[in-house]
Every structure is written in structure tokens, then in C-alpha cells.
Fold this sequence. Notes:
Layout: E1 6-13, E2 16-24, E3 27-29, E4 68-73, H1 86-105, E5 110-115, H2 119-122, E6 138-143, H3 147-152, E7 161-168, E8 171-179, H4 189-201, H5 227-230, E9 236-238, H6 254-263
Parallel strand pairs: 3-7, 4-5, 4-6, 6-8
Antiparallel strand pairs: 1-2, 2-9, 7-8
Amino acid sequence: MVWCGTMLVRKTLRQLTILVSVIALAGVVSGCGSGLFPEGEDVLVNGSCAAPTDQMGSFMGRVQGYPIEVVVDASFEKRAPDGTDYARAIGYAVDQWNAVSQRISGRDAFRVRFANLTDTLRQVDPSDCNVQFGDEDTFYVVRETNDEHWNKLNFGNSVPGATFRCTRSGRVVRQIVFLYPDKVAAPQFASVAVHEFGHSLGLDHSCLQGDGRDDFRSCDALPSTHEYRQAVMFPVIITGHSLSEMEFKATPLFNDRVRAACVIDPA
Ligand SMILES: [Zn+2]
């Protein structure tokens, strides 16, 4: 199942009603195509999980151990035309979740290093869990630059990032994150990175696009002030032509942190 898509919302700015696009932050593939390791059904929550009843189904497979080794594409060290430092934004996203993890378990969730990645990895079909793209201890963050590959993964211009995971018995056996900086305004890149790293910890979205369930509330009709709407793990973010129109979500909020405690194992 791919969580992505394009939506439009009306937003009032400076007394005007402007139509701004909303980009799907991530395509999270649960179960990874082949169906070998279907994810999501048997994720157990630990005793300290205090997520609301209508978010109890909002979790994906947990990682196998901590810290998770993350190998980030060294090409992120090439900056945006406006000077935005993507590598630093990724480091910032990691720091955010490590701080959350420290509060929950007293240890970091992620340990990051940068490396040159192979073309094979860039071209991988991560929806096939038979293909090797990392292992249970290490995952890659790839800088996507290729529209053809992106389209093959069923993403378009409205999707700047995607996390693919394969799980077995509720535990991740491999995962990979693609970030496509050209699909998002540079100032919003950190928000996308924070969101994707939330997925890689095992958080699904804060609400479900489309019809909801008793244990996973629908995003439809959530007021703009609702904590699920404000969370970094809300499935879409508002874009715009200027900074004042853009939505920034670079810090996990209370709801994100409460849910993180349901997927981060106790030390
Ligand atoms: Zn997402």
C-alpha cells in the first residue's frame, strides 16, 4: 500500500483565498509489494504506549536494534541553488528524533554517516523485498534525482520523499528512504526529512488518508488546530510560493513523541 497522493486545500492568507498545493510527504510501502513480509498487523505496543485509541493502529514494524545505522548519500553535500545545506538538514532531522529517543529510552535512535552510494542502489526497486537494499541494522538515505525512477515508483512532482520498509513478524528487515530535494522548496526540506525519519522509526501517519478506522482516525475533517493535523507525521504539508505560505514541521510535537514511545523499545 502506498501512502501518497496530491491534495489541494484552500487556505486563507492576507484576506485572500489562495489555492495552494499540498504535497504528500511520503509513500510508505507497507508490506512491500511482494507480500513476503506484510507489515502492520502484528505490531505490538509496549506498556508505556499512551497513544489515543484512534491512533493505536498507526504503527508500523519496529526496528531490530538501536542505534539504527543510517548511511546517507554523500551527494546531499551538494547544496541547493539558494545555499540550503541538505546534509545539515538531514543531520538536524536525526538530532530531533535522537532527542525524542533519548527521553524515551536514554539512547539515540540513529547513528549517521555519509558515503558514496552505488548506481545500483539508486535504481533499486524497493517495493520488491527480495532485492537487497540494506539490512536489519543499516538503511540508506538516497538522494533521488531521476524522474524516470521516481515515476517508476509511482511518485510524481508532489512527492518529495518516500520510505520503503520490509518487515517480518513486526520487525523491520530492511528499509530505505528516498529524498528528492528538487520536488520541495529548499526551506521545507528539513520538514520532509523529519517526517521520513519518523517513518523509519516505525511511525505511520498521524491519521489515515481516506476512510479511517476505530484504531486509526481519518485525516478528513480534522480541524487545522487538531494535534494529528499539526504533527510532523501528518501525511501532507502545505507548500507555497513564499515563506509565509509554507508550512514548516521540523520538530516532533507532543503527539509525535507520544506515538514514538509506542515504537521505540525500552533500553
Ligand atoms: Zn509519510
